[in-house]
Amino acid sequence: MPALTSAPSLLPLYARAAVTGPLHRFSGGGDALPGTEFTLADQRIDARHLVDYQRVCGFGVADVLPPTYLHVLAFPLSVKLMTESTFPFPLVGLVHVANTITQHRPVRRDETVSLAVRAADLRPHPSGRQFDLLAEATVDGEVVWTGRSTYLRRGSSSGDKAARRELGAQQGPLARIAVPGDIGRRYAAVSGDRNPIHLHPLTAKAFGFPSAIAHGMWLKARVLASLEGRLPDAFTAEVSFKLPVLLPTTVAVAATHAGPGWELDVRGAKSGKPHLAGTVAG
């Protein structure tokens, strides 16, 4: 269990990924995930960074952390793990297809947080193989937050092809959210996730996208921000990321009550194409 003394710097890790990625280009990857778990103890929350994150994602400025904020703090550990020589897949080309976070209780800015990240559950996917990165945040030994990010490595697979389902009309009241063309750069500045597909139309086109696309975790955070004040202190928010959000655009967000929680459905306001689906359960 490698214990880090400071948060990994992301720029050198991205540079390593750019250099080593071509070595894996024609490889399906290994058959096992490393058993490594990176930990980072006693992290204080930077007040300026927290405010910047809250504003970019649409949360109100407050001393309580947004439920998605600890994902950003754990992200450098995830990137370090995925750029290790023992990791079976190159970072470049991995697709973030789903994310689950559980907030066990609200965390305040003045609390000191310890983080741990590991990989688990390599398994088939209809379009290749997928795995989870598991993150955990503790305060004085108490687990206060957990996250699971599911990544897809495209390629041949023995998994069954998923059947396509026809989408019905969005249900419940709709909120329209304008997504500006620079949101990828703005979110990258606070999250450290500087994947070129998010930053500029030209760099996105190099990867086959007609324009820059929004980060999936920005979209999830923005949707949860629209429910701010209506969520319990402890809950689980589970989402799957569908078609990319091409920038700039407007999305339609439907959040309908489902028992004690919510069902989430985000689509293009004009196109009706699905971008995010999920649930929030207390």
Automatic annotation (TrEMBL):
Pfam entry (one): MaoC_dehydratas
InterPro entries: HotDog_dom_sf, MaoC-like_dom
Protein name per UniProt: Acyl dehydratase
PANTHER family linked: 3-HYDROXYACYL-THIOESTER DEHYDRATASE HTDX-RELATED (PTHR43841), 3-HYDROXYACYL-THIOESTER DEHYDRATASE X (PTHR43841:SF1)
Family: Belongs to the enoyl-CoA hydratase/isomerase family.
Span of domain MaoC-like: 185-259
